[in-house]
Amino acid sequence: MNVRALILGVLLVAVGSWACTQPQPAEEAPEAADVAQEDALQSSSSEPESALTKQVIEVEQAWAAAFEACDTDALASLITDDFSFTDYNGMTYSRHWFLETSVPKCARNVIRIEPMQITFNDGDNAAIVMSRYHQFINDTPEPVHQLQHVLVRHGGTWQVAHHHSAVMQDIGPEIGKAFAQLGEGASTRKAPVFEPKIARYSGDVTKNPPVDRVVSEKEAVYTALKYVNLFQNCRTAHLEDVMSEVYLISGYNGMTYTRQWMVDASDACYHDLQRIEPLQIRLYGDNTAILLGRYHQYVGGQPYDLRHITATLFREEGGAWRVAHHYSTTFNEYAGSDEGKLFFSVADNSTIVSLPTPNWVVHRPLLAPEEQPWMFAGDGDNLND
Length: 385
Known about the structure:
Blueprint (H helix, E strand, L loop, with lengths): L2 E3 L2 H4 L6 H4 L10 H5 L12 H20 L3 H7 E8 L5 E3 H8 L5 E13 L5 E12 L2 E2 L3 E10 L2 E11 L29 E4 L12 H20 L3 H6 L1 E8 L5 E2 L1 H10 L2 E14 L3 E12 L2 E2 L3 E9 L5 E10 L55
Parallel strand pairs: 2-8, 4-9, 10-16
Antiparallel strand pairs: 1-12, 2-3, 4-5, 5-6, 5-7, 7-8, 10-11, 12-13, 13-14, 13-15, 15-16
Helix pairs in contact: 4-5
């Protein structure tokens, strides 16, 4: 799978009004090899919703069982070769770290995933699964997390391409939530009886022309940059043009909100600055992209905390990329593992200009749990891995 790390000096420009005024990159004529795409994802938009849902839930259940059992081989078969893992601390780790370091620790004796909403792209070859994530470590319940898994399908087999979780907290807006969500609370062993909400993009991409993958990567990144710039400048009508009909946004509080909530937030016009520093873009087939980066915000002239962003984009009818899901989590470099990080990350405030070392991994000094008062109780086992 083609993975391109995007250096900020190349992709980031003065965000200001640039993203709104510059023309979009012109499509280049695809070469025969690109059109063929031997690894193109299976398209099966005629599949019954119930069958698709069952397949995805089975993958989630298999993930939970394998992680709980510390079964590295089983997990390796459930994740893509370019899998990435964004933890509750906002740090993103590699597939190698996840399989070789995180899984073998075997401290988790209960893991349970409750899918709350499953969103499929056109062709049903990618799914965004939003779940409540329950963990017990040494028989002690951890706080409930909100979990995002981005799944892709190759030749009929679903795999997890990206994992992103954050602790659910009773902070932030109460209105506009996309589905039933817990506030602060401890994990539980027994799952309630419920059916996840299902969203399927209703457009038709079968007539979209194939594109050169390099051009498509640039267009996906451009769309993400344009998306935050339009929000910053309160251009709601144009913002809606780059948001998928199945759009969701998940925040630092571990809560997920609707498309309408984001539209209303744009109308409120309270952000001074919104910008993304893209660090990596990954394409799956023609119509799904995952962008990982750093997310900066200023409100009332003051910088917000620096965050990681996972933007999942769908290439929709007519060939345009749109943001399907936005998930941001505050960086906390003093929590979780210091090894295996894919990118330079730091717990700090947002900045107006780009950080100078976009892809260096900076190792922090190890601190004892008592030196980390900002950590909540019960999470000390995750410190200084």
